[in-house]
Design goal:
heterodimer, A: 289 residues, mainly alpha, three-stranded antiparallel sheet, 71% helix, B: 4 helices, 83% helix
Chain lengths: 289, 109
């Protein structure tokens, strides 16, 4: 139990950093916090995973307060994905109790490298294409007749040149990715946003900002699906988790406000860089634990 | 817009409540002169422990309030869609809620 002011400050700062990155990039932030807890604080893996899940809930909730106000969150799309991600989260949370952490880390690192490759391909595309791209968001200078379909939406984004209108394509693909992301969330305590966001952006026609905000909105529900399983097993350590959550609440709110001034291209680049860092962390952890 | 406003209000209130409980627990924990082992969570005693000034009780109270927020959000969204007669999304929300309730029951049994 961490009760000294230095320990508390360290955990609050780590929580603030992970919360800020999580809100900025549309992920839960636990992919930063969990390696910190295991490598720096030497917390047992299952306790770190449980703290990660609660941190995802905090990041998701705090960022949603800002993103809902901006109209970036697509609630209908989030619900349609949550039905899959929650099922995956429960399965992951149940399986996690019987699997060694090292094996999970190796699988996780492989998947993160694959996700980084997908994002890198996305980076090759021009940020401002000359002509219309199938499945891409369509910036329009002023609101007009918006054909968004049942799941699509629209939002105002001055950084992208006005009102952005989009339709959602390939929903079953996004639900499949959400199911897998939910499973990883339950297994490893992450939000799973780093799979859902690229899938929505690159394959389903959802602009990166809306994808990040919607993913951030849904990962809280996904994390809850397995968080109570960890809670029941006594893996949620109150002091560590409490201090981290206090930092996360502050960090994610500040980052969500900063996000207003950052264009989609910058968010995407930061996101790809984060994936590489996380893969390296996980590989290191798998062979040095 | 009404849906987003409802969820936003819920989140602001929930974050304030859970954050306050965790902050009280953290302050009490720092005030203790020696580290206090945290007992495994027992739901029935968490409120009693918090009322008795136990930092672990306050921390658990805040964390549980935070963990309950997404579940209440899904319930709230289901209600909003039902009122708007958007049955497809109301049913989807009800399905998500059923899965979450099953998970909580599994975890706390």
């Amino acid at each position: 139990v961490f009760t000294t002011p230095v320990d508390a400050l360290l955990l609050i700062l780590a929580g603030a950093a992970s919360g800020a990155l999580g809100a900025l990039l549309g992920v839960g932030g636990a992919i930063i916090l969990i390696p910190f807890l295991v490598i720096v604080i030497h917390l047992p893996m299952h306790h770190a995973v449980a703290t990660g899940l609660v941190s995802v809930i905090a990041t998701s909730t705090a960022a949603a307060v800002v993103n809902l106000d901006r109209g970036l969150v697509n609630v209908r799309l989030a619900l349609s994905l949550e039905i899959a991600s929650v099922a995956g989260g429960i399965a992951g949370g149940l399986v996690a109790a019987s699997l060694p952490g090292r094996a999970l880390m190796v699988v996780f690192a492989i998947l993160v490298v694959a996700a980084a490759a997908v994002m890198w391909r996305g980076l090759r595309a021009p940020i401002a294409p000359a002509g219309p791209v199938p499945g891409a968001a369509t910036p329009v200078p002023a609101p007009g007749v918006e054909m968004t379909g049942r799941l699509g939406s629209a939002y105002d984004d001055p950084a992208d040149g006005g009102r952005v209108v989009y339709r959602v394509k390939r929903l079953p693909l996004a639900q499949g990715v959400s199911l897998g992301a939910g499973g990883l969330s339950g297994l490893l305590g992450i939000g799973g946003g780093f799979f859902v966001v690229p899938a929505l952006d690159l394959f389903c026609g959802v602009p990166i900002k809306a994808a990040a905000a919607t993913s951030n909105f849904m990962i809280g529900v996904t994390a809850v699906a397995s968080a109570f399983l960890y809670f029941g097993r006594g893996d949620v350590r109150p002091a560590v988790t409490g201090y981290a959550v206090l930092g996360i609440m502050a960090g994610s709110l500040v980052a969500a406000l900063i996000n207003r001034r950052i264009g989609g291209g910058i968010v995407r680049r930061l996101f790809a860089a984060l994936l590489i860092v996380v893969a390296a962390q996980m590989i290191w952890r798998a062979f040095h634990s | 817009v009404r849906l987003e406003r409802t969820v936003r209000r819920l989140f602001i209130g929930g974050l304030a409540a859970s954050g306050a409980c965790i902050a009280v627990g953290a302050a009490l924990a720092l005030a203790w002169s020696a580290p206090r082992p945290s007992a495994p969570p027992r739901l029935s005693r968490i409120v009693e422990d918090a009322a008795a000034g136990d930092p672990v009780g306050w921390l658990y109270l805040g964390l549980l309030a935070l963990m309950a927020l997404p579940i209440v959000r899904v319930l709230s969204v289901a209600g909003c869609f039902a009122r708007a007669r958007e049955w497809r999304f109301a049913a989807t929300a009800a399905g998500v809620l059923a899965l979450l309730v099953a998970s909580v029951a599994l975890g706390l049994r």
